[in-house]
């Protein structure tokens, strides 16, 4: 095969790969923008606000603010819950803490079972409703957090795709440049036929 032909073929394959990487990068960036906007919009509609800064000054077990919330929840004091990271903190470090302080550790299945066994108990009925609401909200917030993580992954995947496309486009340009400078008759592999020719000589 001639060297110029080889350079053109490999460069053309590289060019197609660049196009694929650019399309993939664009789709991944769109996925990031979509998930980011949807998570923000859905969380904003809930109108959840973190307790004000003053609430974290005297944490106490059994109250709204416990000591375990200081490292994580307090960093968002007074803010509206709008991001996946905030949703994860509210779900695991705020709602989950209060659920765990309830009878049966706030596990809805156990409270519901107890409420069915004692249908006359208004206390268990109230606990069942509270557990259901808390567990449902926690699940929704964790879903939002999961989608935000997926969005972050697609963002960095998009950056990687665009970066690879840029690097490969440079190599493709060099390949076409080299093809133009290569003599038309130059072969990719040149065999030295003289080296394999049988030796001749007179006695």
Q: What would you say this structure looks like, in words?
A:
This protein is mostly helical and 203 residues long. Helices cover 67% and strands 0% of the residues. It has one domain (3-187). It has five helices and no strands. α1 (3-46) runs antiparallel to α4 (122-181) and α2 runs antiparallel to α4 (122-181). It is elongated. The two termini are 41 Å apart.
**Total number of β-strand segments?**
0
Largest pleated sheet:
none
- Look at the helices and sheets and give the structural class: mainly alpha
Shape: elongated
What's the order of the H and E elements? Answer: HHHHH
Query: Terminal Cα separation, in Å?
Result: 41 Å
Count up the helices.
5
Measured by DSSP, the beta-strand proportion falls in: under 5%
| Rg measurement, Å | 33 Å
Number of domains: 1
Q: Please, what is the average pLDDT?
A: 88
Low-confidence stretches: none
Helix content, binned percent: 55-70%
Write the layout of secondary structure elements.
Blueprint: H1 3-46, H2 84-100, H3 108-117, H4 122-181, H5 193-196
Task: Record keyword descriptors for this entry.
203 residues; mainly alpha; 5 helices
Give a quick summary of the entry.
With 203 residues, the protein is mainly alpha-helical. The chain contains five helices and no strands.
């Amino acid at each position: 095969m001639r060297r110029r032909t080889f350079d053109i073929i490999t460069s053309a394959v590289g060019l197609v790969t660049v196009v694929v990487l650019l399309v993939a990068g664009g789709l991944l960036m769109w996925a990031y923008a979509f998930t980011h906007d949807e998570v923000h919009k859905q969380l904003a509609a809930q109108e959840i606000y973190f307790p004000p800064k003053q609430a974290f000054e005297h944490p106490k077990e059994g109250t709204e603010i416990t000591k375990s919330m200081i490292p994580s929840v307090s960093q968002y004091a007074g803010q509206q819950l709008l991001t996946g990271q905030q949703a994860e903190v509210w779900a695991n470090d705020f709602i989950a803490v209060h659920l765990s302080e309830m009878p049966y550790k706030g596990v809805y299945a156990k409270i519901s079972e107890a409420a069915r066994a004692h249908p006359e108990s208004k206390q268990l009925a109230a606990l069942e409703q509270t557990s259901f609401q808390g567990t449902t909200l926690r699940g929704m917030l964790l879903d939002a957090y999961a989608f935000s993580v997926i969005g972050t992954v697609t963002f960095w995947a998009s950056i990687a795709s665009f970066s690879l496309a840029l690097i490969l486009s440079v190599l493709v340009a060099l390949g076409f440049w080299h093809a133009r400078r290569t003599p038309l008759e130059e072969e990719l592999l040149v065999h030295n036929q003289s080296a394999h020719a049988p030796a001749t000589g007179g006695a």
